Amino acid sequence: MISFRLVYSTLAAVLTLISAGTTTAADRVSGETFALRSPVLASNAMAATSQPLATQVALDIMQRGGNAIDAAIAANAVLGLVEPTGNGIGGDLFAIVWDAKSKKLVGLNGSGRSPKSLSLQWFNDQGYESIPSHGPLPVTVPGTVDGWFMLHNRFGSKPMSELLAPAIRYAEQGFPVTQLIAYYWNRSVPILSKWPGFTEQFTLQGRAPKQGEIWRNPNLAKTLKIIAEQGRNGFYTGPVAKVIAEYMQANGGFLSVADLAEHRGNWVDPVSTNYRGYDVWELPPNGQGIAALQMLNMLEEFDLEAMGRESAEFVHLFTEVKKVVFEDRAKYYADPDFNTIPLATLLSKEYARERLKLIDLSDASDAFAAGNILSEGDTIYLTTADSEGNMVSLIQSNYRGMGSGMTPPGLGFILQDRGEMFSLEPGHFNQFEGGKRPFHTIIPAFVTKNGKPWMSFGLMGGAMQPQGHVQIIVNMIDFDLDVQAAGDAPRIHHTGSSEPTGEQMMDGGILNLETGYPYATIRELMRLGHKVQFANGPYGGYQAIHRADNGVYWGATETRKDGHAAGY
């Protein structure tokens, strides 16, 4: 018979652990208690992706003489097959590359543009107040395939046919669907099945594949073979473009052969801020990467180490800083070809200090205004590093998980719905225009120290991304966590800020805290006026490769996903 005293003492011990914020899946003898695995260490090469098969393909490419850029392209092609819930060749791509030869960072904006025949006036005439989340209207030109060839033409060393071969082989022979991907796939089926071609190409007799079931995509294999044989033109001007355009025109869409043929990605210069001696790099708009830099500029004014990572003081400060920065994000982040983005001001330390004056350290704010400086959401992330020192930070997405639902016949992929991120407000920086790039959430990141590569990293998940980038940096630099523990630590995710699509924050939004924060912290945050909730996320999907001073690569992967980091 179990004594009441034993039960009571055991329960008390459990409650004590919970109140202290202790969450651990196993009894670790080293490292942080919340870390679910050790960093992966290797001297020659490293890959970290959100699906183990893609990581292994990246390593195999590098072991056979390919470089980090080759490996990133090959891994991304595999991810489009094995993780269609987050990406595919119907979506867009951004990348930051550390080129070991020139010892410089290079940025790639591979995002596509809206159909030129569609206009803001058309949406107004039809009575739309916002762009639909699915179907033909939010579809923009897919930029991923062009992005692959831009990366390959400049940095690649292996033939593109060799890089796409693993994805083609898995598409033909099949692979077992992993746990989290099966979960999200099942959620997407009832939403996307109403659109032509989806059920036929992305379900098993109307249902999603289950965890462990073998999935094949022979249509995607055929499309990848066309790309491997005919190059980017096979996609943008050849047979694939013709099928896409005919399908869209037949189903209420506007994307045309001309829109596809005219698409080109852009090489861009990454932008940075120095945070406590580390240069943190992001890509400029139309993405949201500079939000992370603006947040770091404001947080640098405080002694975060003294506050403590789990303190209400830190969480409150972080949340209020995010709210302030996201007002600028809502107002100014858009396609620079259509607007003059005040980058210099937004990224200046002086502007950060001025914006900090808006924050009350003892009270949660309901609303903020954007700075007056006019004079001036699902994804995959992967990173690779090779023996020569090249490193790639690459992010790719269809948006909203599996995308628009628009699935051209016989091609094996779904078109993205990034056009949803336009505003229909006339005069807004991000207002819809034909041939324009929408505001983009997906952002790769990189860190250098004293002019040398220090970390390639990213954290997927819509508006969580800049918040996640900042938390990774702060966890490593201020709170001295290693690259894996920095990702495993419980995360903060504030929602409800003003958006580039026109929504305005008037009630302070909602603060989501991941399991692991002490109850004392939660209670104090509520007393400060925060609306605290707990949910399944999204808290982001993190991958990273840190390069130590001795040249050793430290790989980290996201324990909240099906991810895998490996090296040799």
TrEMBL record:
Protein's organism: Arenicella chitinivorans
InterPro entries xref list: GGT-like_enzyme, GGT_lsub, GGT_peptidase, GGT_ssub_C, Ntn_hydrolases_N
Hydrolase listed as a keyword: yes
Modifications the protein undergoes after translation, according to the UniProt entry: Cleaved by autocatalysis into a large and a small subunit.
Binding site for L-glutamate: 462
Entry-linked SUPFAM superfamilies: N-terminal nucleophile aminohydrolases (Ntn hydrolases)
Family classification: Belongs to the gamma-glutamyltransferase family.
One of the GO biological process terms: glutathione biosynthetic process
Superkingdom of origin: Bacteria
Pathway given in the UniProt record: Sulfur metabolism; glutathione metabolism
Gene name of the record: ggt
Classification lineage: Bacteria, Pseudomonadati, Pseudomonadota, Gammaproteobacteria, Arenicellales
Enzyme Commission number, as recorded: 2.3.2.2, 3.4.19.13
Record-annotated active site: 379
Catalysed reactions, as listed in the record: an S-substituted glutathione + H2O = an S-substituted L-cysteinylglycine + L-glutamate; glutathione + H2O = L-cysteinylglycine + L-glutamate; an N-terminal (5-L-glutamyl)-[peptide] + an alpha-amino acid = 5-L-glutamyl amino acid + an N-terminal L-alpha-aminoacyl-[peptide]
Name of the protein: Glutathione hydrolase proenzyme
Signal peptide bounds: 1-25
Keyword Acyltransferase among UniProt keywords: yes
Gene Ontology MF term list: glutathione hydrolase activity; leukotriene C4 gamma-glutamyl transferase activity
Keywords: Acyltransferase, Glutathione biosynthesis, Hydrolase, Signal, Transferase, Zymogen
Quaternary structure (record): This enzyme consists of two polypeptide chains, which are synthesized in precursor form from a single polypeptide.
